[in-house]
Amino acid sequence: MNSESPSTEQIWELLSARLRSFLLQRVSDEQIAEDLLQETFVRIHKNLDDIDDMQRITSWVFQIARNLVIDHYRAKSRDAASIAHDLEAQKDEEESVTNLVAGWLPQMIAQLPANYRQAVELYELKGVPQQEIADQLEISLSGAKSRVQRGREKLKSLLFDCCSFERDRRGNLIGYRKLEGDHGCEDSCDC
Fold this sequence. Notes:
Layout: H1 8-26, H2 30-47, H3 57-109, H4 114-125, H5 130-137, H6 141-162, E1 163-167, E2 173-178
Antiparallel strand pairs: 1-2
């Protein structure tokens, strides 16, 4: 370029194709590259009168583009950090509801018939493998599996007779409310 002060239009004619290519090499999305190109020329237009050394205008123009690319990735990083923070907060909230409901389990399990109560307590609360449950209760492995499965179904019925549970689209527990009527669970849950 010569030492005269070029116009924004002249800079566009001379450098826009190179700048577009430069931006596309740094961001993979054509629309984002086009947006960054437009923003580069907005900044060129706003600051063109402040340039002292017209010999270095090309490097100045590309520095503006570089800075915009850096700003773009910083903003994306902040957005990603913000989303991660929101997801973590949501996860903590889900876990607190899940932990609260899990705290009701001992009292709810106590309401099960004795043969199911023992199997479910051993399996759900103490983490005893089903073969050991079979050995402790002196029943077959299939009998232990059946008691655990049926006991869990009865426990689930107790919970759903007492409260309504809200889940997110992934199936995580996010809320609950007590159902109308007396379900015999008042001492078992905090609904």
